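Hi all, long-time lurker, first post. I run a small reading group and we've been trying to get comfortable going from sequence to structure in the token notation. Rather than ask abstract questions, I figured I'd post a concrete chain and ask someone more experienced to write out its structure so we can walk through it together at our next meeting. Sequence below, copied exactly:
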Amino acid sequence: MAILFNNQGLVKNEFRAGLALVRVAEVKRDRHRVLQLGLFIAESQTILLALIPSVVVGVPLGANLIRRLDAETFRRICMSFDAWVVGFGFSRVLIDLNLVDSPWAYGVLVVTLLIDASLLYVFFSGQRAASNRANDDTS
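-- Answer (accepted) --
Happy to help. Here is the structure in token form:
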């Protein structure tokens, strides 16, 4: 989704709103399915209670951080996180379908992380170089 919204050229607030809308729709859909299957159990309520403090603290901190980030940096971080999630999910699918043995299936995740790390390095190196050039021009 992050790549789709990035390619649409959305500004930061539109980008955030689009991602939030998709995530809310996913949660509602998944909640409905879990209720249908009867998978809500007492332990899941305990987990919910443990997550509430993280949400109460994390949402305001995240909102403050996002306000301070450049729009392109925010997009890159979102796409990076999406890559990690997809890499992990793909590794788990390979294991669940018995296509690859457990430790080797996580090679997909490792390759994803390495590619992502190199892309982030290039991006942040370019930003640092541009920032240094801008500072040299003003001096």
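A couple of things your group might point at:
The mean pLDDT is 81.
The radius of gyration is 19 Å.
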